[in-house]
């Protein structure tokens, strides 16, 4: 494989995640993207992304293919473009679609199964990935180069990907729920809207950086804020009454269980698609 800067990348499915990936990569090398309807997309075009209407043409042109269609579209798209992906690394960002399904749908391609989040749009995502079988020299470097454009990244065991989908992939939705609630609380007391938003967002950023940089446990860091008989403990007391920690634990468990359920449904769908395509050939 060539170094990332010379790689031609095709993003199949330039929606929320595919669009973010295409935008992040375009300043550093040639990128084409496809969508279901290839209508003009000024934002992607301004970023230098060329839109194509044909997945096979896009994949055939590329050195590295990114798959960012909805999970139910993954197998049909791979059956459509498998020949054009032959001998190439393919990065799938689809939730719940296992390496086994990816590899069986396009056996001649080499797959990475990855999960990222919407902060990829500004290069601040956390991306996790597991490589499939048969990687060639340079594949890992090319994929890591791509993930680095999206933010921080880490290689993980595939078995962790469903729960990481519920954490790193879905996570921004939970954080926005918290931030929205904090803003609403401040509005209720009468803080101006913009000031409430700035205070909530910057406080979340600072708290997350301190957690990563200090290496201290979140409970320890929370304790440092909580003055005996002071202000914070009144807020913490209300949160505990609302069983907020239980609610978040249940949220991650439920989302993770859903990812596993989707993975099981995806296996059945993959089998149905394969049978239908074999019947068409026969
Ligand atoms: N939205 C999120 O926060 C995250 C989503 N993902 C995964 O990324 C994938 C895409 O999700 P979103 O970006 O949210 O969906 P989306 O609906 O915004 O984007 C999907 C795109 O695929 C296009 N598309 C549909 N059928 C196609 C086909 N046959 N050929 C080419 N393009 C086609 C659609 O036109 C659309 O632009 C999913 O598999 C999801 O699990 C992963 C991480 C986070
Ligand atoms: O909700 C979903 O299924 C996707 C996967 C992670 C974030 N969004």
From TrEMBL:
The protein's name in its UniProt record: Pyrroline-5-carboxylate reductase
Binding site for NADP(+): 68-71
PANTHER family registered for this protein in UniProt: PYRROLINE-5-CARBOXYLATE REDUCTASE, PYRROLINE-5-CARBOXYLATE REDUCTASE 3
Enzyme Commission (EC) number: 1.5.1.2
A Pfam family reported for this protein in Swiss-Prot or TrEMBL: F420_oxidored
Pathway: Amino-acid biosynthesis; L-proline biosynthesis; L-proline from L-glutamate 5-semialdehyde: step 1/1
Lineage, uppermost ranks: Bacteria, Thermotogati, Synergistota, Synergistia, Synergistales
GO molecular function: pyrroline-5-carboxylate reductase activity
Role description: Catalyzes the reduction of 1-pyrroline-5-carboxylate (PCA) to L-proline.
């Amino acid at each position: 494989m060539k170094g990332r800067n010379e790689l031609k990348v095709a993003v199949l499915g330039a929606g929320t995640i595919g669009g973010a990936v295409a935008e992040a990569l375009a300043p550093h090398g040639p990128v084409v993207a496809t969508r279901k309807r290839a209508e003009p997309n000024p934002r992607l075009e301004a970023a230098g992304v060329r839109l194509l209407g044909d997945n096979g043409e896009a994949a055939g042109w590329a050195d590295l293919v990114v798959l960012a269609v909805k999970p139910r579209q993954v197998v049909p798209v791979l059956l459509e473009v498998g020949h054009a992906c032959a001998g190439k690394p393919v990065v799938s960002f689809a939730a719940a679609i296992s390496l086994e399904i990816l590899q069986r749908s396009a056996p001649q391609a080499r797959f990475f199964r990855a999960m990222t989040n919407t902060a990829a749009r500004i290069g601040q995502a956390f991306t996790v990935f597991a490589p499939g079988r048969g990687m060639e020299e340079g594949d890992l470097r090319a994929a890591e180069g791509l993930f680095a454009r999206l933010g921080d990244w880490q290689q993980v065991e595939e078995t962790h990907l469903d729960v990481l989908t519920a954490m790193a992939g879905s996570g921004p939705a939970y954080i926005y729920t918290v931030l929205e609630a904090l803003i609403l609380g401040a509005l209720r007391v009468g803080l101006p809207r913009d000031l409430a938003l700035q205070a909530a967002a910057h406080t979340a950023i600072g708290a997350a950086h301190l957690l990563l940089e200090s290496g201290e446990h979140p409970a320890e860091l929370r304790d440092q804020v909580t003055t005996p008989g002071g202000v914070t403990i009144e807020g913490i007391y209300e949160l505990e009454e609302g069983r907020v920690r239980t609610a978040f634990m249940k949220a991650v468990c439920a989302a993770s269980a859903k990812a596993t359920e989707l993975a099981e449904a995806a296996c059945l769908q993959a089998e149905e698609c394969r049978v239908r395509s074999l019947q068409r050939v026969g």
